[in-house]
Amino acid sequence: MRRKPPFISESLRAQFKAIVVDVMALVPKGSHANYVIIDPTVPDPEGVFPGVPIYTGQSADIAQRILAHLRHAAVVPPDRGQLYARMAALIHAGSMPIFRILQVHRTRAQCLVAETTWAQRLLRSKAQLLNTSPDQSRILTRSSVRRMQRVGLFALTLDEADRVGLGLQVRCRGGCQSITVQPSSLARRFGERMTFRGVRQRLKRCHACGDANGFRLQPAAVSKTGWKAPEGSTLGLRYRDGGWFYRAEPDDLAHHELAANKQCASHSEDHGEYV
Ligand SMILES: [Zn+2]
Fold this sequence. Notes:
Strand order of the largest sheet: 2-1-3
Helix content: 25-40%
Bound molecules: zinc ion
Number of domains: 2
């Protein structure tokens, strides 16, 4: 016998739907969005949001993502992760979590980079984020943020990378070769849904000498109709000394302030290293 889907009352269902309809009004079709979940029962320390931000995320299908968050909180026992426990408590107390769109983007690459930037901005505005990844749960130095953004972009598929003109530089640590490969050439070999992370796994060793390969993202020509980020600037990245760098923003992290607060998670400098 098939198990029944978990029970969610009609009234709750209707409230969830209303939340989604409301949020979707701000999201152009086909875009990628950064969003924030807000607890309306605790005031936002900065007075910007209608409550304290408790989570930030990104999605290309924001309606489904919001519904998934709400359903999960409504039916999953509230010991599975802090976010859902918090959301479940709000839903059962009749104070619905609030969803807000922070920014919309044309590409997943931009949205991934912005996700880290938003999390850092919210954390510095005293948000109580229940996100679990390090770049979204604690305040980091600017160099750590850049590094995590570059590593985060390895989640792009070859097709997504091609659209923004990001190629993969592969360098043999033994020193016998260093080449930048266009995503379209990698896609012919691995398929366009393969991610950079997957490619990195498959090309671990130099085929000439067997030494380990190092990888980093590099600008590359786009092969298909799409939209190329001019010099990575719209990705919030700029190109310098052979690496992608996060563009500094006026409210960017001040290292000495963080160090003084003992909030600095890493003092390491960023040399655009290979990963
Ligand atoms: Zn080699």
